[in-house]
């Protein structure tokens, strides 16, 4: 299904194949020979999405462009089943395995691998050819790549990157952080009320 969102409709190259149960919404450009499989969601939520030639977005993956961070996925990439990409730049020939997550402002260098259930945190920069092992976490620039058991080191880097401020514009120490976060984010998402099906 293709949806116009905030006046922008997806643009799908005539050689691309989008499964009927995939959802493509807003300012999304799907390149030559791209394959988007069943259940995938590719949505421009304030930032556009560009997917390069011969890239594959597999079942139930989510690719989300956000305010302040568009998504660019280069040529010949594979976004695995249940992978999640939000506001990141994925250079060509990158493998994002099943269940991997890449967050706002991250850059995954050419030819890198983010393996099963691995996480690349916001504003993390992976040099070309980097591998994030199964279930591990990459955080920061230069990146700390470590086991999820190394919570203290990950937490120290995450605090520097300041997820609430960077993504939602909110101070981490705001007393009613979740109230403000959900109200602000909910208002952004409510813009979908006026989406229009442009699949035909």
TrEMBL record:
It comes from the Bacteria. Coiled coil: none annotated. Gene3D superfamilies: Hexapeptide repeat proteins. InterPro entries: Transf_Hexapept/Carb_Anhydrase, Trimer_LpxA-like_sf. This is Gamma carbonic anhydrase family protein.
């Amino acid at each position: 299904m293709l949806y116009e969102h905030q006046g922008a409709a997806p643009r799908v190259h005539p050689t691309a194949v989008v499964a009927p149960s995939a959802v493509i919404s807003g300012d999304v450009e799907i390149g030559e020979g791209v394959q988007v499989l069943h259940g995938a969601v590719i949505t421009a939520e304030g930032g556009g999405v560009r997917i390069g030639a011969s890239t594959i977005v597999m079942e139930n993956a989510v690719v989300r462009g956000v305010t302040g961070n568009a998504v660019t996925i280069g040529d010949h990439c594979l976004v695995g089943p249940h992978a999640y990409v939000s506001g990141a730049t994925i250079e060509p020939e990158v493998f994002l395995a099943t269940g991997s997550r890449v967050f706002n402002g991250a850059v995954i260098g050419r030819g890198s691998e983010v393996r099963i259930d691995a996480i690349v945190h916001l504003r993390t920069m992976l040099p070309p050819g980097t591998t994030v092992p199964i279930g591990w976490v990459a955080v920061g620039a230069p990146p700390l790549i470590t086991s999820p058991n190394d919570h203290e080191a990950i937490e120290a880097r995450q605090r520097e990157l300041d997820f609430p401020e960077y993504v939602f514009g909110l101070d981490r120490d705001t007393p009613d952080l979740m109230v403000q976060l959900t109200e602000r984010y909910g208002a952004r998402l409510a813009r979908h009320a006026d989406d229009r099906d442009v699949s035909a």
